[in-house]
Amino acid sequence: PVIGKEWYTEMNKQPVLLYEDISHGCERFTVPVFSNPRFKMDTLVFDTFKYTSRIIDLSGNLASRSATPTFVCHCAGQCTEHCECSSGVYGAGGTVEDMDQLMWDTVRECNENCECALWCGNRVAQKGAMYPVEIFARDPWCGWGVRASVDIPFGTFIGEYTGELIDDDEATERRDSTFLFETRVGSMTLTIDAKYSGNYTRFINHSCSPNVKVANVSWDYDVIQLIHMCFYTDKLIKKGEELTIDYGEAWWANKKFACMCGSSECRYQNGK
């Protein structure tokens, strides 16, 4: 059959650059946003979105801590394998060699009071993202997504989930928000809300077969430590490949729509 001119033109439209750098210099690299002329996407989110590479503590939960140091090392230069600050998850080059070990417990990195060098191999997530990514219009159903701008090796830290740190009462009021991520400060459970403030990780989509894992990481010197929600690649991710995480059963429990991740292992095709 002859392909219609309108169909051919529509299918060959090129992505449009909406923003050269939505991070406004907050990252080491630009974070561009690309729309797709084939899809009608909600772009208003970018007009009201405040980009931040760190957690915003409007409630003062972090500022009110005791400032009592803990886990301070005295290593010269590079930390040794016996350093009390190290969780032993990082190998050469700062990548994770055993993803199961990453998920066992909180990953502890050296902190600002440690005497080791800034280039110490146990300072990874605290330095921020190193590999460039871009936000793109995935489709009208899943909305915006994030994809790699370069090849990213297995076990690489790619970003921390940031946003506004809120308590349980506020989290209950905002329970319908899609962008809530539970965390802890010491023994207290808090929530990170990235609806209006956050970074590019806020746009990462769910997949039942994700290529990125979420781990608990801490690099605070205070004994009451903030648990950072950090993302690591679970495979070699090629340039142009979408980054995905597993939102978890608790997130899907309140959703009335079906998952459209397209995975052969999809667990939420019927919705809730």
UniProtKB/TrEMBL annotation:
InterPro entries for the chain: EHMT1/EHMT2, Post-SET_dom, Pre-SET_dom, SET_dom, SET_dom_sf
Annotated SET domain residues: 131-248
Superkingdom, natural source: Eukaryota
PROSITE patterns: POST_SET, SET
Alphabetized GO MF terms: histone H3K9 methyltransferase activity; p53 binding; zinc ion binding
GO BP annotation list: methylation; negative regulation of transcription by RNA polymerase II
Keyword Transferase: yes
Pfam family, one: SET
Name of the protein this chain belongs to: SET domain-containing protein
A single Gene Ontology CC term: nucleus
Annotated compartments: Chromosome
Domain Post-SET: 255-271
First-listed, main subcellular location of the protein, grouped into a coarse class: nucleus
This protein's UniProt keywords: Chromosome, Methyltransferase, S-adenosyl-L-methionine, Transferase
Keyword Transferase set for record: yes
